[in-house]
Design brief:
The complex is a heterodimer of chains A (656) and B (527). With 656 residues, chain A is of the alpha/beta class. Chain A has 16 helices and 32 strands. Chain B is globular. Classes of the chains: A alpha/beta (656), B alpha+beta (527).
C-alpha cells in the first residue's frame, strides 16, 4: 500500500512528517537548499527511509513566493484596453512608505514594450462601446507571436462584468501554444489594477512553477514508482494536483504558511473550539491569523508588494521572530527588530558566526531554552556566545523578551479586533519554532482562556499538509442589491458546475465533494465585507455580523451582494486521532533556574524540564516548567498548568 | 544553568518605553481600522484620507496612526483649542473643523473624546477624516471660494455628544448644510464609532497598568521623541541658509525660509512669506507643523516615534496674516494640499542647501486636485474629489518613481472601473507621461496623463500648482516638466486658467498632465 508524506519547504528548514500508522508521526528536519529546493525534499524523504510501493507527497512549496520576491518570472506579453497600457505601472498611485527620503513604489516589473493595447471598450455595465474586431484580434495575435512570450496575460476594462472580448481574444491566442491567462476567468472581480496584477503574476509564474513541479513529480515516480503522486498546498488551505497547480500557480503564492493554518482549524474542529487565533512564530517572522469555525475567511493576498485577487487564508505577518535583533536606539531606548539575524548567521547561540543579541539568545539566557535538548542535541546552543552578545549590548535579556511580547500583543489585537472579536473569547493556537515560548505570556496579557500547542509545533505546516482536503475556490463579482434566492441560485450554478467538473477531474466522486456557498455582503457604500453562508435568514445574519464588528447596524441601508464565492472541498484526508487520557504527573528530567517575566519580575526561579516525547495523554504539569521536544520548547509560566489532551496537544491554562 | 549577571538598567520608564510605544500605537491603529471599515465615502474607505491620534492630558501628541502626513503636526493644536472653550467630561464627544481652533481645513472634520481613569482625565483620543463636502460654494468645497466663509460650514469646538446624548443641532448641520447628507452622517457616525473602540482599548490598558504608569509612559514617550530629534539635529552641520519658492497664480505668492541650525536646535523662520490673499491658498500653523514633522521623519534614517516631542527642538517663526499663518476671513481649503506641498518643497530645498547632495531633487510638488459635481438623471447630486500622483524626484539612490503621491499625501487612486460605475464619466486614457521627468545621472520620475469624457453636465475645477514653475533637479540634474490642465469644449482644446471653474456638457473632455520629478546628478554625456 502507498504511503502519504508531508514535506514543507520553509525559509530555513525543510520539514518532513510521515504518519506511523498508530496516530503519531515520524519527523525529520533538514536545511532548505534554496538553489534547488527539491534536493532538500529528497534529503528529508531519504532520512525517513520510506519503503512503499508508491508515495503520495503533499508539498508546501515556496517556488511561487520566491519567484515573486526575486522577480524571476517568465517572459509575459500583456494585452490591455486602449488607453490603459500603464495600468501596472500606475498601480494605486501610492508609495511604499510614507517617510522614505527617496520615494519607492513597488509595481509589477513588466517591460513596457511587451504591453499591447487592444482597440476595444466596454462600459461599466458591460455594454459594447467599441467592438473588438476580427482584424484587431489578428493584429494582436501577430504582435504577441513576434514577441516570443512564454505566457500571455489579458486584462480588459470591465471584463469582470462582461468577458466576451477577453474570451474571443483568448481563443485566438491559444494557437500560439503558450499559456493564456484571462482576467475574467482567473479573477472576475472589479478593480482593474488588482486584476491586471493577478493575471500578470499568474502568467509570469506558469513557466517557472510548472516545470519545477513537473520535475519533482517525475523524480518521485522514478524513486517510488509510477503510481506516486505530488499534491501541492494552495494559499487557501486546500491541496490540488501538481498539474492543476501548474495551471494556476497564483494560487500557490502563500502555499508555505497555509498548512499550519489549515491544520489549526481542523484540529480546533476536532477539539470543539470555536473561533481561534493562531500564532506561527518562526526565525524571521511571525504570522497571525483569526480563524472562525466553518467558513474560512479567505481574502485577497499581498505577496512581495503585489496584490493578488486569489483567495488566501487571512495571514498577517509581523517582522518579529526568534532571530529579531535587540538594539538601543540613539536615545538609549531598547528596541527589538525590525532587523533580523535571519537564517544566516542566525542567533549568536547557534554558533554560526552571529555576534548580535537576538530574541532566541534572550530565551536561552533566561533559561527558557535548553542548550542540549534543542533539536535533540543535533545542534547544541552556545550559552557563552549568547551571553557575550548581551554583555556587549549591555541589555537585560528579560527586557528584550518583554518588548518582543508587546509587539506580538499589538499584532494579535490588530487581527482579532479588526474582525470584531474580543481576544478574551478566543483560544490561542501557537506553533512554529518559537510560538510556544511566548504563547502563555501573550494569552495572559490578552486575557485568553486557553493555549493549545499542537503536536510537532516546529513542523506543524507539514502536519497540515497531511490533513488538508483537496480544494477549489471560485468567485464572481456581482455588485448589486442582494437579489432573491432564485436569482442567487442562477449566479451560483455556473460556479457549481465548474467546481464539480474540476474536482471530479482530480479523481473525486460527486458524492464526496462538499461545497460551501458564500455570499460576500456589505452595507451599501461601506467597504467592510462580510462572508455569509447561503441559506435561510441571510439578512438577519448579515446585520448580526455587522453589529458585532462595528458596534452598530444600518438596517435602513441597502445590503449589497459584492460577490458569490464557492469553496469546494474533497474529504479531509487525515482525521485527528483521539486517545484515552488518564491524568498522571510525569517525572521531570531535571530542574534548572529560569526567568519568567510573565510573573511581573525578573528573579530567577527553579523550574522543571520535561521531554514532550515522554508525555502521554493525561500528563499534568504545574508551572513554572519547560517542555522540550525535537522541534520546539513550551514555556509553562508560574501559576499555569499544562496537560496533554486526548489529541496529543499540550494545553496550557491559568490556574485558579 | 547559570544566568549571566547583568548590570541593572537605568531604572524607570525608559526601560519599558518600547512596550508602551507598541501598546499606545495599538490603540490608534484599532481606531483607524474601525473608521475605515465602517465609513461610507470612498475618500475615507478607499483613499484613507484620515488619521487617528492619542494625546496626553495637555493635548500633546503621544501616538498617531497616520496615513496622511498633512495631519501629522495638526493634532497638537486641537486639544488646547478645545480646552479654551469646553471642559469635556466622560461620555462627551467634541466636534470641530475650524482651522483656527484646532482644525486644518473645513473638509477635515475632527472628533475628540476625553479619556478617563477613575475620576481624572488623563488624555484624549482624536480622529480626523476628510469629508467630501462641507457645504462650500462649489461641489467638494475645495474650489471657487474667495474666503473662509464661502468654503463651507464652520464648526468651532462644540459638543457633538454630551454625557452620551447626541447634540441634534450638529447632526442637523450635516444633514441640511452639506451635499450628500447621508454620506456625511454615515462618515460622522463611523468617526464616533472609532472613538468608542479606541476608548475601550485604552480602558483595558488602564486596568492593566493603572493611571500613574500610563501617565508616566505618555510623558516619557514624548520626551523620548524630543531626545531622538535633538540627537539627529546634532549630527547635521551647523549653518544658516535661506531659500524660497512660489505658488502659481498672478500674484505668485511666495514662501520664504531662513533656516538656522545650531547644535541640537533649529530655527525655521518663515517671516518673509507673502501676506495672506483672497482665495483658498492660505494656511496656518497646524499645516506648517505637519510639514516640519514630515521633514523630521523623512530625513531620519530610522523611524522616529510619532509623538509631538520630535518638534520640540524646532523654533518656528511665522508672521501673522501671511500665507502660512492666516487669520479669517482668509480661505484655507487648498492650504492642506497645494500650500503644504510647497512647504515641503521649501523645507527640502533648505535641507539641500544645508546637507548637500544626499537630498533628492524636487518631486511634483502638487496634489493635482480634481473636483466636480452634477446631477444624476434621477435628480440626486454627485460630488467627486481626487488627487492625482506625479513624478518623484530622483536621488543619490536611483531614479525617481513614476506616477506616485509624494510628500504630504499618499492617498490611493479610485480604480477606473469603480469610477465609471459610480459616475457618468468615461476615462479615455490613464497613463504615465513619457519624458516628463528631469534628466540626470538618475532621471526624475514621470508624471501622469488622465483624460476623461463627461456623459452628463458637470461643474468642474482643477486646483493644482507647478503649472508655471518646474520641480527642480539636484546635484546637476535638470528640472521635471510642469503640469498642464486642458479642457476640450466647443470643438477645441484650451488650457484652464489657475483656479478656473468651468461648466462642461456631455461630450466635453478634461485632460490633466501632472508634473515630472527633477533629475539627480549630471547626465552622462552621450557618445
Amino acid at each position: 500500500m502507498g504511503v502519504r508524506v508531508g514535506v514543507d519547504t520553509g525559509g530555513t528548514f525543510t520539514d518532513a512528517l510521515l504518519p506511523d500508522g498508530e496516530g503519531s508521526w515520524l519527523i525529520h528536519k533538514c536545511p532548505t537548499t534554496s538553489q534547488s529546493p527539491s534536493d532538500a525534499v529528497f534529503n528529508a524523504l531519504d532520512a525517513l527511509s520510506i519503503e512503499a510501493p508508491s508515495v503520495e507527497l503533499l508539498h508546501g512549496t515556496t517556488h511561487a513566493t520566491n519567484a515573486l520576491l526575486t522577480g524571476e518570472l517568465g517572459r509575459v506579453v500583456m494585452i490591455v484596453t486602449r488607453g490603459f497600457r500603464d495600468v501596472l505601472a500606475l498601480g494605486r498611485q501610492n508609495r511604499d512608505a510614507l517617510f522614505d527620503l527617496e520615494t519607492k513604489a513597488t509595481r509589477p516589473n513588466q517591460p513596457r514594450h511587451l504591453i499591447f493595447e487592444a482597440q476595444e471598450r466596454l462600459s461599466a455595465n458591460g455594454r459594447t462601446i467599441q467592438n473588438l474586431s476580427r482584424a484587431e484580434i489578428n493584429r494582436l495575435v501577430e504582435k504577441a507571436r513576434q514577441s516570443k512570450p512564454q505566457a500571455i496575460a489579458v486584462c480588459f476594462l470591465h471584463a469582470w462584468k462582461e468577458p466576451k472580448h477577453e474570451k474571443r481574444l483568448g481563443r485566438a491566442l491559444k494557437k500560439l501554444g503558450v499559456p493564456v491567462v484571462l482576467s475574467s476567468q482567473l479573477a472576475p472581480e472589479q478593480r482593474e489594477y488588482e486584476r491586471a496584477s493577478t493575471v500578470w503574476a499568474d502568467a509570469g509564474l506558469q513557466p517557472i512553477v510548472g516545470p519545477a513541479l513537473e520535475k519533482l513529480e517525475s523524480l518521485l515516480r522514478k524513486e517510488w514508482g509510477s503510481k506516486s503522486r505530488l499534491r501541492v498546498m494552495r494559499s487557501d488551505g486546500g491541496t490540488c494536483s501538481a498539474e492543476s497547480a501548474a495551471h494556476e500557480p497564483v494560487h500557490l503564492a502563500l502555499s508555505g504558511p497555509a498548512g499550519g493554518l489549515s491544520a489549526s482549524r481542523t484540529l480546533a474542529n476536532a477539539r470543539g473550539d470555536s473561533t481561534i487565533l493562531t500564532l506561527d512564530m518562526g526565525g524571521t517572522s511571525t504570522d497571525v491569523a483569526l480563524l472562525p469555525p466553518g467558513e474560512l475567511p479567505l481574502q485577497e493576498m499581498k505577496v512581495a508588494g503585489h496584490t493578488l485577487l486569489a483567495r488566501g487564508l487571512p495571514l498577517h505577518t509581523v517582522g518579529a521572530g526568534g532571530g529579531s535583533l535587540a538594539s538601543f536606539d540613539p536615545a538609549g531606548v531598547l528596541q527589538v527588530g525590525p532587523e533580523s539575524a535571519g537564517a544566516n548567521p542566525g542567533p549568536a547561540c547557534y554558533g554560526r558566526g552571529g555576534k548580535k543579541a537576538t530574541v532566541t539568545d534572550a530565551h536561552l539566557l533566561c533559561g527558557r531554552l535548553h542548550p542540549r535538548l534543542f533539536l535533540d542535541g543535533e545542534a547544541p546552543l552556545d550559552i557563552e556566545k549568547a551571553s557575550q552578545a548581551f554583555h556587549s549590548l549591555k541589555a537585560n535579556p528579560a527586557e528584550v523578551l518583554e518588548i518582543a511580547c508587546a509587539e506580538m500583543e499589538r499584532a494579535l489585537r490588530r487581527v482579532s479586533l479588526a474582525e470584531g472579536h474580543d481576544p478574551r473569547e478566543l483560544n490561542l493556537y501557537a506553533f512554529g519554532g518559537a510560538g510556544a515560548l511566548h504563547a502563555a505570556w501573550l494569552a495572559n496579557r490578552l486575557g485568553m482562556k486557553e493555549v493549545v500547542i499542537p503536536p510537532f509545533p516546529g513542523a506543524f505546516s507539514a502536519l497540515g499538509l497531511l490533513a488538508a482536503p483537496l480544494r477549489r475556490g471560485f468567485s464572481k463579482s456581482v455588485l448589486q442589491k442582494l437579489p432573491s434566492k432564485k436569482v442567487r441560485r442562477g449566479l451560483i450554478q455556473p460556479l457549481m458546475d465548474r467546481a464539480y467538473f474540476e474536482l471530479m477531474a482530480e479523481g473525486l466522486s460527486e458524492r464526496s465533494i462538499l461545497i460551501r456557498q458564500v455570499l460576500e455582503l456589505r452595507s451599501k457604500g461601506q467597504s467592510g465585507i462580510f462572508p455569509i453562508l447561503e441559506g435561510p435568514r441571510v439578512l438577519e445574519r448579515f446585520h448580526a455580523a455587522h453589529k458585532k464588528r462595528f458596534g452598530f447596524t444600518r438596517p435602513e441601508e441597502e445590503v449589497e451582494l459584492v460577490a458569490v464565492r464557492l469553496q469546494a472541498d474533497g474529504p479531509s484526508s487525515e482525521s485527528w486521532v483521539k486517545k484515552r487520557a488518564r491524568r498522571y504527573s510525569p517525572t521531570a528530567i531535571e530542574a534548572q533556574t529560569a526567568v519568567f517575566p510573565e510573573d511581573g519580575h525578573h528573579r530567577p526561579r527553579r523550574a522543571s524540564w520535561y521531554r514532550r516525547e515522554d508525555l502521554r495523554p493525561g500528563a499534568n504539569i504545574e508551572g513554572p516548567a519547560l517542555v522540550a521536544e525535537y522541534s520546539a520548547t513550551t514555556v509553562v509560566p508560574p501559576s499555569w498548568n499544562a496537560r496533554i489532551d486526548p489529541w496529543s496537544c499540550l494545553v496550557l491554562r491559568r490556574m485558579k | 544553568m547559570e544566568l549571566p549577571c547583568l548590570e541593572e538598567d537605568e531604572i524607570g520608564m525608559r526601560r519599558q518605553l518600547s512596550v508602551f510605544q507598541h501598546l499606545f500605537a495599538s490603540v490608534t491603529e484599532e481606531m483607524g481600522e474601525a473608521l475605515r471599515q465602517s465609513s461610507v465615502s470612498a475618500n475615507i474607505k478607499e483613499r484613507r484620507d484620515y488619521s487617528c491620534a492619542l494625546l496626553d492630558e495637555d493635548g500633546r501628541l503621544i501616538a498617531h496612526a497616520a496615513h496622511i502626513p498633512v495631519h501629522l503636526g495638526s493634532a497638537h493644536l486641537t486639544v488646547p483649542a478645545i480646552l479654551k472653550k469646553l471642559n469635556p467630561e466622560r461620555g462627551d464627544v467634541v466636534v470641530l473643523n475650524d482651522p483656527h481652533q484646532g482644525g486644518t481645513h473645513l473638509n477635515d472634520v475632527t472628533v475628540v473624546a476625553p479619556l478617563h481613569v477613575g475620576r481624572s482625565r488623563v488624555g484624549f483620543l482624536l480622529n480626523r477624516a476628510h469629508h467630501n463636502d462641507v457645504g462650500g460654494v462649489e461641489p467638494g468645497s475645495l474650489t471657487g471660494a474667495k474666503s473662509l466663509k464661502e468654503e463651507g460650514v464652520l464648526i468651532p469646538p462644540t459638543f457633538l455628544q454630551r454625557k452620551g446624548a447626541p447634540n441634534p443641532k450638529i447632526w442637523k448641520l450635516f444633514e441640511t448644510k452639506m451635499r450628500e447628507p447621508a454620506a456625511r452622517k454615515g462618515d460622522l457616525l463611523a468617526q464616533c464609532a472609532a472613538l468608542h473602540r479606541g476608548s475601550a482599548r485604552f480602558n483595558d490598558l488602564a486596568e492593566r497598568y493603572g493611571r500613574r504608569t500610563l501617565v508616566d509612559a505618555m510623558s516619557a514617550l514624548y520626551d523620548h521623541g524630543a531626545r531622538l530629534a535633538r540627537l539627529m539635529l546634532k549630527t547635521w552641520p551647523d549653518g544658516e541658509v535661506t531659500t524660497f519658492d512660489f505658488l502659481d497664480g498672478k500674484e505668485t505668492p511666495r514662501i520664504a525660509l531662513r533656516l538656522a541650525k545650531t547644535g541640537p536646535r533649529m530655527t525655521l523662520d518663515f517671516s518673509g512669506t507673502s501676506p495672506q490673499a483672497a482665495g483658498s491658498w492660505n494656511t496656518h500653523r497646524a499645516v506648517v507643523l505637519s510639514a516640519v514633522a514630515w521633514l523630521m521623519q523623512t530625513i531620519s534614517e530610522r523611524e522616529l516615534p510619532e509623538t509631538g516631542g520630535i518638534l520640540e527642538p524646532i523654533t518656528l517663526k511665522l508672521a501673522p496674516r501671511t500665507l502660512i499663518h492666516s487669520r479669517p476671513p482668509a480661505g484655507v481649503a487648498l492650504g492642506n494640499t497645494e500650500t503644504s506641498q510647497r512647504l515641503a518643497d521649501v523645507l527640502l530645498a533648505g535641507m539641500r542647501a544645508l546637507l548637500g547632495k544626499e537630498i533628492p531633487a524636487a518631486s511634483q510638488g502638487t496634489m493635482n486636485n480634481l473636483c466636480f459635481g452634477g446631477k444624476r438623471p434621477s435628480g440626486s447630486e454627485f460630488v467627486y474629489y481626487e488627487t492625482i500622483g506625479g513624478g518623484a524626484g530622483a536621488g543619490p539612490g536611483g531614479a525617481g518613481a513614476d506616477a506616485v503621491q509624494v510628500h504630504m499625501t499618499n492617498t490611493l487612486n479610485t480604480p477606473v472601473e469603480v469610477f465609471e460605475s459610480e459616475l457618468p464619466v468615461r476615462i479615455i486614457r490613464y497613463s504615465t507621461r513619457s519624458c516628463s521627468g528631469g534628466k540626470g545621472l538618475h532621471p526624475g520620475g514621470d508624471g501622469v496623463i488622465k483624460e476623461m469624457e463627461f456623459l452628463k453636465p458637470v461643474r468642474l475645477g482643477v486646483v493644482a500648482t507647478r503649472r508655471q514653475s518646474s520641480p527642480v533637479g539636484a546635484a546637476g540634474g535638470t528640472a521635471g516638466k510642469p503640469g498642464v490642465d486642458r479642457v476640450f469644449q466647443n470643438g477645441r482644446w484650451r488650457i484652464l486658467d489657475p483656479g478656473e471653474m468651468v461648466d462642461l456638457v456631455p461630450g466635453d473632455r478634461l485632460q490633466i498632465q501632472t508634473p515630472g520629478g527633477g533629475g539627480w546628478g549630471k547626465p552622462k554625456p552621450k557618445k
